[in-house]
Design a protein that fits this description.
By secondary structure, the chain is mainly alpha-helical. Helices cover 72% and strands 3% of the residues. The chain has a single domain, classed as Fumarate Reductase Cytochrome B subunit (Up-down Bundle), CATH 1.20.950. It contains twelve helices and four strands, in the order ααββαβαααααααβαα. It comes from Bradyrhizobium quebecense. It is found in: Cell membrane. It is a multi-pass membrane protein. This is Formate dehydrogenase subunit gamma.
């Protein structure tokens, strides 16, 4: 009897094992069919180490915690972006320092005349400084995301870095809105004066008054300023669109689209910072009298004659015509 019971248990165990294999094999086959016609090696690699769970919110895509493309994005953020940003920003700083040591400040050759002319109105300067202030804070807080951990964290410690990064993130998110408004205002205010023309070609050929001591004619905005204008408009639009896509996840695209937006946002942003360093240089220590244009809005006539002679002629012609129209009325009043 004992032997019979033993054989029965063995038979039942074998039958149960066979049943489990029969049920599990079709299940595995339904997930991945390892035949040449159904799956390729690349498809298997794409799903390797994919971590996906369940979420209670309507968008189930947020349940993907890790995916192959995410590792590529992490490599870009931690390695490639740091090289791009470091080369662009540090390279620009080195170039500006070298240029200043060689060329020095571009000074007024004729000196100051004592007469002034209005270059930018109050609203224009408000829009410029609002955008510029927001940009500086956005740049600092954004660079903290890329370079803060390897550079700043060892200097100030974990607690201080955590507190700083939290407030930097708040500033980055909320100041994006006035920055976007400022870019839109700049686009609308100065579009008419920033259309390229033949005068810009000649300005570039003659070095724009920066290289050498020549002062080629220019209208209200020269070719260099027009280039900055379009970089601000196009670059500002690019970082704004991609930034809002990241601020409001899954509204415009899935995870892959957001990763692409993060790459575009980061690359455009670091190049934007590098260009603005050159813009700040010219507007401060690079050119005598340039800061006054956006500081007080008033520039010396000799400065306008050397750097924007065609614009000065237009303003003087307009002022003369206005005086001519007002003189008959004044004579009649006498």
């Amino acid at each position: 009897m004992a032997s019979l019971a033993k054989y029965i248990r063995l038979a039942l165990g074998a039958w149960a094992l066979a049943l489990m294999i029969t049920v599990s094999v079709p299940s595995i086959a339904q997930q991945v069919n390892p035949t040449a016609s159904a799956v390729k090696e690349q498809q298997l690699l794409q799903e390797f180490n994919r971590i996906q769970g369940r979420v209670s919110i309507p968008d189930q895509r947020s349940g993907v915690l890790e995916q192959p493309a995410g590792r590529e994005w992490r490599e870009f953020r931690n390695v490639t972006l740091r090289w791009i940003g470091g080369v662009a920003i540090l390279g620009m700083l080195v170039a500006l320092v070298a240029f200043y040591l060689i060329r020095g400040m571009v000074r007024l050759q004729a000196g100051r005349s004592g007469r002034t002319i209005v270059r930018f109105g109050a609203f224009e300067r408000f829009a410029h400084w609002m955008t510029a202030t927001c940009f500086i804070i956005l740049a600092i807080s954004g660079l903290n995301i890329t370079f803060g951990r390897p550079l700043l964290l060892p200097l100030i410690g974990h607690e201080a870095f955590s507190e700083w990064s939290q407030w930097a993130k708040y500033a980055h998110n909320y100041l994006s809105f006035p920055f976007t408004i400022g870019v839109m205002l700049i686009f609308l205010m100065w579009l008419g004066g920033n259309i390229p023309n033949k005068v810009d070609v000649e300005w570039i050929k003659r070095g724009g008054g920066i290289v050498g001591h020549d002062h080629p004619p220019a209208y209200r905005f020269n070719a260099g300023q027009k280039a900055v204008y379009w970089i601000v408009v196009i670059g500002g639009a690019a970082v704004a669109i991609t930034g809002y896509e990241l601020m409001f996840p899954f509204y415009l695209s899935g995870i892959e689209g957001m990763q692409t937006a993060a790459v575009v946002h980061a690359i455009v942003a670091v190049l934007f910072v590098a260009v603005m360093l050159a813009h700040i240089y010219i507007g401060t220590i690079g050119m005598q009298g340039a800061f006054e244009a956006m500081g007080s809005g008033i520039v010396d006539v000799n400065w306008a004659k050397e750097h924007h002679s065609l614009w000065l002629e237009e303003e003087e012609t307009r002022a003369a015509a206005k005086d001519a129209r007002s003189k008959p009325a004044a004579t009649a009043a006498e």
